[in-house]
């Protein structure tokens, strides 16, 4: 199954997404946390590059309680495709856009009475009850306010608003070390307890991302918020879950060149052929999200063999040395990122070579390469 018919895939450079693996990973996660903990599947940044619209049904069919994005723009794209899916915005939405959140039936992260009032007022126009989760800062200092008597009072007043459903309360771990995590946990739980003693109640208390939900069962609470884990990224340290990488990235050779010993390749002739060589042009570049600093480190797999990238990576194309690959031909498939079983570069390896993390490697793949979904 693909999202596009073959004649609609207008490029050889494609991102392949294995929906079967996504579902497998979701099942592992749900079995791990059990039925009392809901799974909010994080699909921000276009589903970490896998394509949020393309993977949403598989995640919902797998039992996700929410699909979470970072921005209203991301939520609206999903809403236009899926009128009925429960959507959550993890990030800040500017005040002027909060009525749109209510109108679109999206659950919003908030941290002030001003935001709550705007959403409560939006009920009058739309007739839709606004749903929110309150963000508590426990040290990360990114979004939310630190626990204080004033914030407790403010949250109680928010909970009393007539047309607002305060469905949840959450915080986010900085994952500094066990001791700091525990401090954040205690701060959060004590604050929630205080709020409950003041008469507030929350269906969902949550704090765990991918790493925290595997490593620390105690932090799973009513809901977890995995992103990377669903896509098969193994970032945890203490616990273990055999999730599988659901994304691969491939292209096809557009042209072969016979290059004489001493001749240069690509901008500035940064690479010169040490001997007579066969060079393959590949139609992907840094504008397809491939890290430009993988020059001299990157490689693709062609006919089961490693072909090192040579010369400077261009925006839309790059070159690989295929001299030692018997039978190499124009049109041959080249695996850019794979699961490693064919010797291909995994997301994990790419992240190490590029000096970044795995989420960055996949989330930076832009919309340009078509997504092809297989089951
Ligand atoms: C991105 C994000 C997550 C998911 O993070 P992963 O490390 O990919 O699991 C969870 N919670 C919040 C608030 C986030 O911004």
Number of domains: 2
- Ends distance: 6 Å
C-alpha-based Rg, rounded: 24 Å
Note the run of SSEs as H and E.
EHEHHEHEHEHEHEHEHEEEEEEEEEEHHE
Beta-strand residue fraction: 15-25%
CATH topology of the largest domain: TIM Barrel
Number of extended strands: 19
Largest sheet: 9 strands, mixed
Q: Structural class given helices, strands, pairing?
A: alpha/beta
- Uncertain ranges: none
| CATH structural class of the largest domain | Alpha Beta
Q: Output the number of helix runs.
A: 11
Second-tier CATH architecture of the largest domain: Alpha-Beta Barrel
* Small ligands present: pyridoxal-5'-phosphate
CATH superfamily of the largest domain: Alanine racemase
The main sheet orders its strands as 11-14-17-16-15-18-10-1-19
Helicity range of the residues?
25-40%
Inertia-based shape: elongated
* Arithmetic mean pLDDT: 97
- Give the assembly state of these chains: single chain
Summary tags:
375 residues, alpha/beta, TIM Barrel, Lyase, Ornithine Decarboxylase, Chain A, domain 1, 2 domains, 9-stranded mixed β-sheet, 8-stranded parallel barrel, 19 strands, elongated, binds pyridoxal-5'-phosphate
